[in-house]
Amino acid sequence: MFGQLIVSGLAVGACYALLALAMVIIYKTSEVLNFAQGEMAMISTFIAFTLLDTYHVPFPYAFAITFLFAILLAVFFEMVFLRQAKDPTVLGLIIITLGFEMMLMGFVGWKWGPDQRSLPFPVSNIETYNFSGMIISKINFWTIIVSLILMFILFLFFRYTKMGIAMRATQQNQLAARVMGIRTKRIFSFTWALSSMVGTVAGMLIAALGVLDPPMMMDPLLKGFASGVLGGMTSLPGAALGGALLGIIENLFGGYVSLSFKSVVAFAIIVLMLCIKPSGLLAKHYVKKV
Amino acid sequence: MVKKNLFGVGLLAFIFFISAPASAAVRGVTDTEILIGQWGPQTGPAAPWGAVARGTDLLVKMINDEGGIHGRKIKYYLRDDSYMPAKTKAIAKEFVEQIGVFAVVGGVGVATGMTARDYLMENKVPWCGPVTGVYEWITPIQKYLFAIYPLYDDEAFNLTGYLYEKLGYKKIAMFYQNDDYGKQGVMGVERYLLKHKIKLVEKVSAEVTDRDLSTHALKLKNSGAEAVIMWTMPTHAALILAETAKIGFKPQWATSNTLSDSALMMGITKGLWAGMINSFFGELPDSNHPLMVKYREAHKKYAPQERWGVFYYAGIIFAEPFFEGLRRAGRNLTPETWISAMETLKNWQGIGPPITYGPPKTPMDRQGGKHVFYGKVRPDGTIERLTDWIQITK
Amino acid sequence: MDIKRNYYEDIELFKSNTILVWSILFLLFLAVLPWLIVKYHLLGLSIYIVNLITVHAIVAVGLNILVGFTGQISMGHAGFFALGAFSTVILVLNWSMPLFIALPIAGFVSSAFGFILGLPALRLKGPYLAIATLGFGMTITTVIKHMEFFGGRMGLQAPKLELFGTLMKDVHFYYMIMIIAVVMVIGAVKLMKTRVGRAFIAIRDSDIAAEAMGVNLTYYKTLAFAVSAFYTGIAGGLYAFILGFINPESFHLIMSITFLAMVVVGGLGSIMGPICGAALMTFLDIKLQAIQDISLIGPALVAFSQKYMSLAGISNIAVIVYGLIMILIVLFEPLGIFGFWIRTKRYWKTWPF
Question: Which residues in chain C have Cβ-Cβ distances shorter than 8 Å to A266?
């Protein structure tokens, strides 16, 4: 049972990690806590659903179109709403993302109605791989692989590409970055697009794992936040590690201590983590001076 | 001091003055119209249940097209409460104080309906068929409240009996959702098992917001149960079936009538729903029952955009008896004549369970639906009817 | 006159006679409001909705002490609201206390938890604090759900209150709640003018600078949480009685978000702002749901939905509008309704220049 709990925990953790990655990308650059992340992924997944289910578009094309939509949506939000905020406070930004979240939620409810659906996905969520007694479903296995690959790509991207370095520079000091010739506004749009893409992958995987309906991202989003905080909101490997750890801890707690309190473990961990090491496991702590 | 007292008395007098009721004619009944209302979650996480309130709309349209009841057309107000109790109560007040409805029909939710129950009863507003099967509607007995939905508790009790006695499953586990609904299910199941001096081999609950049920599935598997009763909402049902199938745990599943929308369930479980033993509170969607045929035609005519699902026509099931009461009450319609008419219903049946009411002596005199029937889901999503209507509540 | 010549003028409750007169007029208006509503159906309001608005206003004022004046974020106030509601009902129901004793006790229970939440908040800032408080709020409701003592998942029915032998109606609740609300609002105004309030504001503007000036951060930050939770707890207790039935499921994250939205839309760092915010958001929340019944827009929306969207989801327009208002207010009027008021006032003062 112990082994199986760990494996299932890792599988769930991979989804959390993907969402945490998406959030960290944004937070790293613009210090915005994106509460609309889940719903942005959800609406993209609904687009994918319409393409696959109603118009029978082959999966790779549907996937590409969905990605394009995710990018446009994120850039739209960044340019039309977020960029217009003059001198925004942390709270103001949170409220803007929350407002956008509600709008998306409302839109999806309006367009597609409230019924639960099933997303046609090429990888089965029932067929399994068996690793010496540990059972893992195909989709869980591929979720883990995909999140590892994505994390690696993102890590390389932030480390070695010009764009990635510009993004990090923007995060450290926006003004200085602009002085150095970085188009910070464009960087922000790009960040949002990147994050939205990662989020969409997470959204499609989560929908394929279970059910596609408007509230499907509420719980994963909160867990994604928890993972981000656990691993460090400014660290990509941290987010992945946080997700995996959270998944495992949750499952062990559910398996051995109490199932009914499983859903609050994440928050207990956050509060504990924040008290002990506010910057998270893998991020450096720095205090802003007066 | 005197001045202060005077002020207090004045204020009180003022308060009583403005709170004095003032109405003479029957609320919500005119020569040409009867006003009724229903709330239902059209937005938010509980929105799939909102179909119930839209289903009632279909029935109202049909009745109006046939010329109404005793020369009066029905005017139907549908309000969205997003499953938030504060809004439900606001809607109830709007119905009574501003629109002035004759009665409330249906209404999804316990937490939501409970905020409105006492208010409606105090204002003598008839309420027919709240869409949940809990004791709160009939205990204490309410003169103006007629419950229809078969009680979850009795349903679970009976379903366990069916599994235990008829099908011979001795090791039974339970998977339920951690709220009022799920808890009623557990109550019934445990009540039955206690009678036979056995226990559930495992009792696993999930929070309403949970989206990861792998641990839950593992617990169920380790219990070695032969049959698992589930008392959840569609999303959790789909998740737990996928998780248990993954780890190779295939017990006999059984579930309540809230999950009786097999077309939906087959879709979201990708076929895992097959084999499910399900209880039903209404005729099957493809039934040849003459009323069902008629309703299906009306559905095509008035609301082709709606899916003909169980939740949708549940709105008809929980409103039919109300309109039958109106018919029997005759032209002279007041809450009192309607109640007397409702109390004459004896084994009256539309597409739901047979309905019987009586003068309110015991709570069961206000519990109309006392029957369910069982069915087994075939691999193609249709249902093999296992039993006829079975009485579950004495 | 806006010029203050000494300290005592600054801490006075009413800055000028004009404000005093307006305040008295406003109180008079509140006193006759139920009558106006019953007689003229102002804006389609019912007394119940006004009661709900008043309760939300108490929460908003309390939350604003924390968010607007002390500069901390809380996304967990639904938790305090639930604590207040459940403790009040249990005290009245199980220990048969009168409401006016149970209510303050519930307030203190809630503020004790506020104090506890204040402790980790000492080290946290901005987004991190948002997540921690969010988790705290969800934990409280989950714990309540699992304790049979709190009625478990079934929820609790609030006992009926009696006034001189008759059951209390909405109007009676109205006066009870309104008196409590007025006292609490005046309390908040006063508090902000004392040493404590100034310490809060100093912490908001810069906690390091405040500490350097001798403000005890540990004490004042936890105090801000406790005071804010106290207000919310009292409001929760009142909420339980105007609703008549409480269930832990209904104190969810969306409720915390709504509270926060009320404060931000109303105006951070003012007292009247959040009250207006609570009024506007509650009103919209309840009235927008019947959007398809509005005379001109309604049929157009129905037709549009039928053609391009789904008719079943038409009520979701309300959610979209609600979200849009939140965004627009932050974008164009960061000080909320209060900021709009200040701008209008200034415009008239200097008119025609």
Answer: 135
**Joined tokens for residue A232:** 């460090």
Instruction: Give every residue of chain A whose pLDDT is below 50, as ranges.
Output: 289-290
pLDDT tier for residue B109 given thresholds of 50, 70 and 90: confident
Hey, is A22 helix, strand or coil?
helix
**Residue ranges of domains in chain C:** 45-252
Average pLDDT for B57-77: 92
Q: Helices (DSSP H) in chain C: which residue ranges? A: 7-11, 17-40, 47-64, 77-94, 99-121, 126-146, 170-193, 195-205, 207-212, 217-243, 253-266, 272-287, 297-308, 316-332, 336-350
Tell me which of C53, C239, C258, C289 to substitute to probe the interface with B (most B C-beta atoms closer than 10 Å): C289
Confidence of residue B21 (pLDDT cuts 50, 70, 90): very low
| ipTM of the complex as predicted | 0.89
Q: Are B226 and B172 in contact (CB under 8 A)?
A: yes
- Mean pLDDT, all residues of chain C: 86
Whether residues C250 and B111 touch (CB distance < 8 A) is answered with yes
Residues 6+ apart with CB under 8 A from B364: B138, B370, B393, B394
C157 touches chain B (CB under 8 A): yes
User: In this predicted model, what pLDDT tens digit does every residue of C16-33 receive, in sequence order?
Assistant: 778 888 888 989 998 888
Please judge whether C134 and A222 are an interchain contact, meaning their C-beta atoms are less than 8 angstroms apart: yes
- Is residue C139 less than 8 Å (CB to CB) from chain A? yes
Pairwise CB contact (< 8 Å): C123 & A31: no
With beta carbons under 8 A apart, name residues in chain C contacting A114. 312-313
Q: How confident is the model at residue B270 (pLDDT cuts 50, 70, 90)?
A: confident
Query: What residues of B are in contact with residue A216 (Cβ under 8 Å)?
Result: 211, 235
> Chain C, 210-249: which have a CB under 8 Å from a chain B CB?
239, 242-247, 249
> Residue A261: is it exposed, middle or buried by C-beta count within 10 angstroms (0-12/13-18/19+)?
middle
User: What are the extents of the domains in chain A?
Assistant: 2-216
Q: Contact at 8 Å (CB) between C333 and C340?
A: yes
* Residue B230 φ/ψ, nearest 5 degrees: -115, 135
CA B344 centroid distance within chain: 22
* List of domains in chain B: 33-150+288-360 (3.40.50.2300), 152-280+374-391 (3.40.50.2300)
Query: Could B305 and C46 be called an inter-chain contact, meaning their C-beta atoms sit closer than 8 Å?
Result: no
Q: What's the pLDDT band for C151 if we cut at 50, 70, 90?
A: low
Tell me whether residue C123 is exposed, middle or buried, using C-beta atoms within 10 angstroms of its C-beta: 0 to 12, 13 to 18, 19 or more.
Answer: middle
DSSP bridge pairs for C114: none
Q: Do C316 and A88 touch (CB under 8 A)?
A: no
Between residues C308 and C261, the one the model is more confident about:
C261
Which residues from chain C sit within 8 angstroms of residue A268, using beta carbons?
A: 135, 139
Structure tokens at B79: 């309000």
**Each residue of A205-220: pLDDT tens digit?**
999 888 898 888 888 9
Q: Do residue A251 and residue B215 have CB atoms under 8 angstroms apart? A: yes
